[in-house]
Design a protein that fits this description.
By secondary structure, this protein is of the alpha/beta class. The chain is built from 13 helices and 19 strands. The strands form four sheets. It has an eleven-stranded mixed β-sheet with strand order 4-3-5-6-7-8-9-13-12-11-10, sandwiched between helices.
Length: 458
């Protein structure tokens, strides 16, 4: 057995449990039990947790005291009562964050966190230890479905300058190595000249799995392919997170690493929302949160099977509750159960970010993945990025390869105008599409809002 894993299992976790009261392993065992529940048992568990949370919110959270008239409805039908609360957008929360702190909570005792802001809207928020430990337990529950356990060695293709400043980098990496048995390859600074070094590092460290942003894993796989490199260690899986994983990316990653690709759907400000099982379904972590999909313009809930904005209600965060918090993702919930036998609800599809959705001149919504379908059939385009500045103006960035033909760009422009209307299109040829500070690479970017702020004021 790996020495690092033994150290973490027998020293690190027992010490955290004794000294800090850490309950990750206890919560993990609870989740492993509840994943075997019947559908009715899961709904009863979630309903009771939602009822307690909503009562706490209207009694102790300034932002929700105006809904005290819902007390009886909460007791009788908490799911119906939840619909009476408005969708909470990131911009509204950012402007009124202190109103979401529960009465009597000591902010100094909480864990300060913030999103990376890769879509231009970073959010600062607070979590308590109970919430964070439930997040971690949910991740380990999902990984356990693939034979991955606490302390298994891993490599992360990860990190941003915000998360790892130059002064803190050495200490951070040492902690990662000793306390989590993992090493990090910086996603925001992959150097083609170091490809051989990265592969040698992976092979020598012998990870059980690799974990990273979908775009960073894809970029790393392409880097390996371009130089004919392969890692020698057999992997239990490659875990994609933080971004939408598209089918073409999955194929490249799977073939390059000769491993199964596992999709994790989570967010820093929501925890683990869903995890893919070996049968292929994305199971919602219903014990920890309520997931809804709502209309992108009105904020009203949509039926299962229809695309909508994802909102989450964290059932364990009593310190800074956010009801129906809108993440900025677009997805579809399914009415079907999974053949694996687990009765946890299934996400039928995770379609991308709300920020990736474009708006035509006449108001039609177009998902950014549409452009990917066009570009993938063009042999002369190595990379692209489409930026919609407003309904009239678009920039198309193109990275050429040796098979480049101007006719393909002309066709791309024709398709853009056919869908968005007669837009002004500025074509820019560049050497590469720069990743964001966190290492994510976005091929579709909309720079203006479409979700109406009124959803917070119902």
């Amino acid at each position: 057995m790996n020495a690092g894993k033994v150290f973490i299992e027998q020293i690190v976790y027992p010490a955290m449990e004794k000294l800090k009261g850490n309950k990750i392993r206890s919560y993990l065992q609870e989740l492993k039990l509840s994943q075997e529940f019947t559908r009715q048992m899961l709904e009863e568990l979630q309903r009771e947790r939602l009822r307690k949370l909503l009562r706490h919110c209207i009694e102790n959270v300034p932002a929700y005291r105006q809904f005290r008239h819902l007390a009886q409805k909460i007791d009788v039908s908490p799911y119906a009562a939840l619909q009476e609360f408005p969708v909470l957008t990131k911009s509204h929360f950012t402007r009124h964050a202190d109103e979401y702190l529960a009465q009597g909570v000591d902010k100094a005792a909480l864990i300060c966190n913030r999103t990376g802001g890769s879509t231009g809207e970073p959010v600062r928020f607070y979590l308590d230890r109970v919430t964070v430990e439930h997040y971690e337990a949910a991740r380990w529950r999902g990984l356990s479905w693939w034979g991955i356990g606490l302390g298994d060695p891993s490599v992360m293709i990860w990190g941003s300058p915000i998360e790892m400043t130059q002064n803190q980098s050495r200490v951070y990496r040492l902690k990662e190595r000793l306390l989590k048995n993992r090493i990090i390859i910086p996603a925001y600074a992959l150097d083609p000249g170091k490809a051989g070094y990265y592969v040698d590092l992976l092979s020598s460290f012998a990870p059980e799995y690799i974990y990273g942003y979908a775009s960073a894993l894809h970029a790393f796989a392409q880097l390996m392919n371009s130089q004919g490199l392969r890692i020698t260690k057999h992997l239990k899986g490659v875990v994609s997170t933080a971004e939408t994983l598209f089918d073409d990316q999955r194929t490249v990653i799977k073939n390059s690493f000769s491993a199964r690709v596992i999709n994790e759907y989570g967010a820093r400000d929501a925890g683990i929302i869903a995890y893919q099982c070996p049968s292929g379904s994305m199971h919602v972590t219903e014990e920890n949160l309520v997931v809804e999909t709502v209309d992108i313009e009105t904020g009203n809930r949509v039926e299962n099977g229809r695309s909508g904005l994802v909102t989450v209600t964290d059932l364990h965060n009593y310190s800074m509750p956010r009801l129906r918090y809108q993440l900025g993702d677009v997805a579809r919930l399914s009415n079907e159960s999974c053949k694996c036998g687990k009765q946890l609800r299934v996400l039928q599809a995770i379609e991308g970010r709300e920020d990736d959705i474009f708006v035509s001149k006449v108001g039609k919504l177009v998902h950014g993945h549409f452009w990917n379908h066009i570009a993938r059939n063009m042999h002369g385009i190595k990379q692209f990025q489409l930026v919609q500045h407003d309904r009239e103006n678009v920039t198309l960035k193109i990275v050429k390869n040796e098979k480049f033909k101007r006719e393909e760009v002309d066709y791309f422009i024709h398709q853009i105008r056919d869908v968005l209307g007669d837009s002004n299109i500025n074509v820019v040829y560049c050497e590469g599409i720069e990743p964001t500070a966190s290492g994510k690479r976005r091929y579709a970017v909309r720079e203006f809002p479409i979700l109406l702020e009124r959803v917070n004021e119902r």
